[in-house]
Amino acid sequence: MSQDILINWSPQETRVAVVEQGAAQEVHLERTLERGLVGNIYLGKVSRVLPGMQSAFIDIGLDRAAFLHVADLMPNIAAKHAAPRAGAPTASESEAATQAPGANGKLLTPNPVLPIERQIFEGQALMVQVLKDPIGTKGARLTAQISIAGRLLVFLPQDNHIGVSQKIPPAQRDALRQRLLRLTATTDGSAAGGFILRTNAEDATDEELTDDTAYLRKTWLRIKEASTRQPSATLLHEDLNLMQRVLRDLVGADTHSIRIDSREQHGLLSAFAAEFMPDTVAKLQHYSGERPIFDLFNVDEDIVRALSRRVDLKSGGYLVIDQTEALTTVDVNTGGFVGARNFDDTVFRTNLEASQAIARQLRLRNLGGIVIVDFIDMVREDHRDSVLGEFRKQLARDRVKTMTGGFSQLGLLEMTRKRTRESLAHMLSEPCAACSGKGVVKTARSVCYDILREILREARAFNPREFRVVASAKVVELFLDEERAHLAGLSDFIGKPISLQSEGSMTQEQYDIVLL
Length: 516
Fold this sequence. Notes:
Blueprint: E1 3-10, E2 13-20, E3 23-31, E4 41-50, E5 55-59, E6 66-69, H1 75-78, H2 91-96, E7 125-132, E8 141-143, E9 148-149, E10 153-156, E11 162-164, H3 170-184, E12 194-197, H4 206-229, E13 234-237, H5 242-250, E14 255-260, H6 263-276, E15 284-286, H7 299-306, E16 310-312, E17 318-323, E18 327-333, H8 343-365, E19 369-374, H9 381-395, E20 402-407, E21 413-417, H10 424-428, H11 444-461, E22 467-471, H12 473-480, H13 484-494, E23 498-502, E24 511-515
Parallel strand pairs: 1-14, 6-8, 11-12, 14-15, 18-19, 22-23
Antiparallel strand pairs: 1-2, 2-3, 4-5, 4-7, 4-13, 5-6, 7-8, 9-10, 10-12, 16-17, 17-18, 19-21, 20-21, 22-24
C-alpha cells in the first residue's frame, strides 16, 4: 500500500507523519531540548581513575565528567587510542583481560585479575559510547564496547560474533545465523565485525540485509577516521536524529514521497541520503506550499483525536480507549448506528469497521504491551471469524510486531504489540492538575461535606476564635445556597463562626480551613 511521509521541522521540534489512504497512520516527534545522548560515540579523555571503585571518570565535553566501570571497558581497543607510557598494559595483558563474547554479541566483563588501573591511565584518549543519559547530579554512564544500530542489524565493530535476537523462535535462529554469516562475510572470507540480527529482520530479504550491512560499515569507517583527526572530548558520532531514522526505518518500496517543509533540512537530509541510502534520494521533496504541511491530511486534527478516550466511527458507533500502565482496553459500542437490516447485521458491521479503526489507533497512538478489545457480542461464528480475520489483516500493515489470539469465552480479544517508544499520550500530555490523572473529580457537594467533617474534627482538637473556609468558587457558592443550612447548623453546634473565602486558583477538590 502506497504511503507518503510528511516532515514538519522547527528549531524546537521535529514531527513526522506516515500517511496511507489519505489518513495519518503513525506520528513520531522529537524535541530538541529533550533529545538524549544515548548511542552517541565520543573520543573521551580519561580525567581520573578510581582503583577503589574499579571505575574512571571520562571527559567527553559535557558539563560533568562521565562514568566508566571496568565491566564496560574493552582494553584492547583502549590501547589503540593510548600513547605508550610506563605502566600501561601490554598487548598480552589486554588480550587476557577480555573473555569470549556472550550470546548477545557483547563482550563479557573483563578479567578481574587485571584491574582498571592496569588498563587505562589519566590523560589517555578512549573511544566510548553513552549507555545512560546524565541524571540530576550524576554524569552519563559509558561503555567502551561500541555498537551501532541499523534498521535490521546491530553492528559490533570490535567483535566477530554473529548473533540472532532471542525473541526470534529457536527453530529459525540457526538458519538466520548461517544466512547472516554468508551475507556479512568480506571478499576475503573474513567477518570484519560482528552483527546481531534484530527481531524485525526475521523476514528481511538478502538485499535489505546487505544494504543495512553496507550502511553500518560505512558509518563505522567514518567514526574511525574522525577519531584519528579529532582532539579528545569530541563527539565522533551522534545517534541519528528523527529525520535520519525516518530514512533508515520507515522508508520502503511502498513509500511514494518524503516531503519536508524546511529547505535547509531538505538539503541536509538529501546529503545524508546520498551517502548512506541513495535509493531514497529520489523520493525526497521540499514542500514550499503556503498551508502548513500537516494541514494537507489533517494530521493535527488526528493528533488531537488520538489524545481523546472516545473515537467516533463513520457509521455512528464509537470506541472508548483507556490506557493504563499494565494494559490498554478498547470498548466497541454501536452508538447511533441502527443498521438497515437486523441487529446481528448491525453488530457485525460495527465490529468490522471497529477492527480497522482499532488497528489504526494502535499505530497512531503507539500503544504497546497487552491490549484487550471488547467487541460487541456476536452470535454467529462466521461473523466472529470475519471480524478476527479483518483485524489481523489490518494489524499486518503495522511495522511493529503484534500477536493476536482468538476470542475468549467472555468474548474478549487479547493481543500484544511490542513497545518501541513512549506512547503519543505520554509524550504530549501529563496528568491533570485537577484530578491527578484519575480522570474524575469529586462533586462540589462531596467537597462541601468533606469540609464540614474536617471543621468538626478541628473544633474538637483546637479552640480558635473563628474558622475560615478557603475553597473554589463553586464550593463556596454551594455553601451560600443549598448547603447554607448545614453550614449554619455546624456553626451553632461548635459555637464558632464559620466564614467563606473564594479562591480562583483552587481546583474543585482543593480547600483550606484557616484557624483564626
